[in-house]
Design goal:
Number of strands: 7
Number of domains: 1
Number of helices: 8
Radius of gyration: 19 Å
Distance between the termini: 17 Å
Oligomer: single chain
Helix content: 40-55%
Largest sheet: 7 strands, mixed
Strand content: 15-25%
Shape: globular
């Protein structure tokens, strides 16, 4: 199988929007031809393997690519290692949890590939298991100075997109300081002094509405409405600075089917 392009930009249409003081980004692609849908699923599966094995031996990424491309089967050792790293992403996993996991990786890919946002310095997430406690994602960017965005990531497959977005606001509002404290406990030991300082003040910056603190809510869905996140500014009123609220809508045609296909590719040979 030929590897796909390394960026989501060739598969999605990106559009930037603003509603009063809230800005939001729509990354959408509906009704893809089967060949494009397959290439996109392969792209995301490859990203997931690279992300999950980023601290492991590179040979296991190569082993996965070999098998997915139709080469020799896994050795027993390769199969054991990859099964452990990809646990929870097999096609037989709980569909709701699988779709949530794919939503987190779509968010991650958008954060990395976005050529318009300020330079990416560090990204935290996705979690190994979507049901694990802790924050969904933290992004540090540089626009003159470092700033961070704490993200809540949701998935939507039903009717009430507005309700899902509102749940994202509520969860982020209720849990932000706990999430940030957990990120801070590890990140303040970063070798870069400037990054370590930012991490050491995450909670304080959020509570005090520092210009360094931003809030983000993402929804992975099959819908692509023309207006979203219009009430976000009512939920994080303590935040100050420029553009402290950011919404992200990532829409693929039939998220449940797409999620399952990504899982099937991930689990090839396992």
């Amino acid at each position: 199988m030929t590897g796909p392009a390394r960026t989501l930009s060739s598969y999605f249409q990106w559009s930037r929007h603003r509603w009063r003081f809230v800005r939001w980004t729509r990354v959408a692609r509906a009704a893809m031809p089967p060949a494009d849908a397959e290439r996109l699923a392969m792209l995301l599966a490859t990203r997931i393997v690279e992300h999950r094995l980023r601290g492991g031996p590179a040979l296991f990424v190569g082993a996965w690519m070999r098998v997915v491309s139709g080469g020799p089967a896994y050795t027993a050792a390769e199969k054991g290692v990859l099964s452990a790293y990809l646990s929870g992403l097999d096609p037989g996993h709980d569909p709701e949890h699988l779709q949530a996991a794919i939503g987190e990786y779509l968010w991650h890919a958008c954060m990395v590939d976005d050529a318009v946002e300020p330079a990416l310095v560090k990204i935290e997430g996705p979690k190994f298991y979507t049901t694990a406690p802790g924050g969904d994602g933290l992004v540090v960017r540089r626009d003159g100075q470092l700033f961070f965005t704490l993200w809540e990531i949701k998935k939507h497959t039903g009717r009430h997109l507005t309700r899902v977005i509102r749940d994202g606001y509520d969860q982020l509002s209720s849990n932000a300081t706990r999430y940030l404290a957990e990120y801070s406990a590890v990140g303040q030991n970063a070798p870069d002094p400037e990054l370590a300082r930012l991490y050491s003040t995450l909670v304080e910056s959020w509570l005090n509405g520092s210009s360094e603190a931003h809030a983000g809510v993402t929804v992975a869905t099959s819908d692509a409405p023309g207006q979203c996140f219009s009430t976000m500014g009512k939920h994080f009123s303590q935040l100050g600075g420029v553009d402290p609220w950011h919404g992200l809508l990532v829409a693929v045609d039939d998220l449940p089917t797409f999620s399952r296909r990504v899982a099937e590719i991930l689990w090839t040979g396992l």
